[in-house]
From TrEMBL:
Keywords associated with the record: Aminotransferase, Pyridoxal phosphate, Transferase
Source domain of life: Eukaryota
Gene3D superfamilies (alphabetical): Type I PLP-dependent aspartate aminotransferase-like (Major domain) (3.40.640.10)
GO molecular function: pyridoxal phosphate binding; transaminase activity
Organism expressing this protein natively: Steccherinum ochraceum
Required cofactor(s): pyridoxal 5'-phosphate
Family: Belongs to the class-I pyridoxal-phosphate-dependent aminotransferase family.
GO terms, biological process: alpha-amino acid metabolic process
Signal peptide: none
Aminotransferase class I/classII large domain mapped to chain residues: 87-231
CDD domains, per the entry: AAT_like
One of the Pfam families matching this protein, by short name: Aminotran_1_2
Descriptive protein name: Aminotransferase class I/classII large domain-containing protein
């Protein structure tokens, strides 16, 4: 089955917070692509000469992901151009080679190909990316839908924006669509409806719940009916 096509970028404009609407690309980073021009010596971003970096290589050793007994180890060494790229200032979206790897992973796992109206950006861990997503979608004082019980790690993010958190009930199979529907259909007309539903559908903290495909489809259908963005904290 082919993956659903991404909606055009203009569809999401109404979901953006005032802060997100005011953001502009960095004038310095916007010129980074020009540095790839052969023979160009760039003085653009004050990048240090790679020969001055103190590290010459990094060796990482881990258990083999295919060995459940953890008796086999895998060693990877990073050096040369790869290491220099990792230690240098880079594009806002993340290390290009890593971004390309994630594009490939999304195509393999979700059937979403690069260039189909969506993009990848790399952050400094899940908490960092979730906060950036929340602040890009929700204005201070607005309401947000969250599953109950809620992963406590995201509370400070919503609290910093003085969000009105509206809890949606869950059970061992995921969000109860009946609870979500009741909340949305009984929402006061005088109050703006939430634009975002935050959920952890796989291995939810603190319950350990993993949402069934049926429940996820029910939630997706309600999101379509009520114009919601589903923000998931999950494995790729």
């Amino acid at each position: 089955m082919a993956a659903p096509r991404a909606l055009p970028a203009k569809f999401y404009q109404s979901f953006l917070s005032n802060l997100a609407r005011e953001r502009k690309p960095s004038p310095i980073r916007g010129l980074y692509p020009l540095e790839a021009k052969p023979g160009l010596i760039s003085l653009l971003a004050g990048k240090p000469n790679a020969s001055t970096f103190p590290l010459t290589s990094i060796t990482l050793t881990s258990h083999s992901p295919t060995d459940s007994g953890k008796t086999t180890q895998v060693t990877t060494e990073i050096g040369g151009k790869e290491l220099a790229e990792g230690l240098q200032y880079g594009p806002t979206a993340g290390l290009p080679s890593m971004v390309e790897w994630v594009y490939g992973l999304q195509e393999k796992v979700h059937g979403r190909k690069k260039g189909e109206g969506w993009k990848v950006t790399i952050g400094g861990g899940s908490q960092d990316v979730i906060y950036k997503a929340v602040s890009a979608l929700i204005n201070p004082g607005e309401s947000a839908l969250v599953e109950s019980p809620l992963y406590a790690g995201v509370l400070p993010m919503f609290q910093a924006l003085h969000c009105d958190l509206v809890e949606v009930q869950t059970d061992a199979s995921g969000i109860l669509s009946s609870s979500l529907r009741k909340t949305l259909e009984s929402w006061p007309e005088s109050k703006p409806k939430p634009k975002v539903l935050y959920t952890v559908p796989y291995g939810c903290n603190p319950t350990g719940m993993t949402a069934t495909i049926e429940r996820r489809r029910e939630v997706l259908q309600l999101a379509r009916e009520h114009n919601l963005i589903i923000l998931e904290g999950m494995l790729p």
